Amino acid sequence: MRNLALLLALLAQDQVDNPEYKGWAAFKPGSFVVFKYSAPQGGFQKNTLKSVSDTEVVIETETSTDGKAGGRSMERKIPAKLSADLAPKNVKDGEEEIEVAGKTMKCKTKEFDKTLAGGRKSTLKIWGNEDIPGKGAQVVITTETGKFQMTATEWEKK
Q: pTM to 2 decimals?
């Protein structure tokens, strides 16, 4: 029994706060953000907070391409903690003003390297603002094959 308690304590030490969870947990269900994204076809993504608990938040994501409604919809659970090996490394923090939804906003920035599925290397830069559900004002992912950008166009906090 003592070994089990020790093992559980060691596993808990390898857990860190999930910044994505923290970005949503400060809001109430029904809060949402809509992003316009650049990709080969472009489109929109709406993320709506469905539920919040001490261990996870549930987000419903609806996507549409080329402005066509009726895109894909899925639910995603975001845990409050994540394994330390999955947490971003070598994060560069900063502050910048950017234009979001027709207004200039002060944002905190985080930039870091990440390995994507299939082993592809990428650089992520996130502009965060406390007033936006999920706190993402803009996200840019750069890989050796190109750049993907998502920018918030509207949001509502509950």
A: 0.81
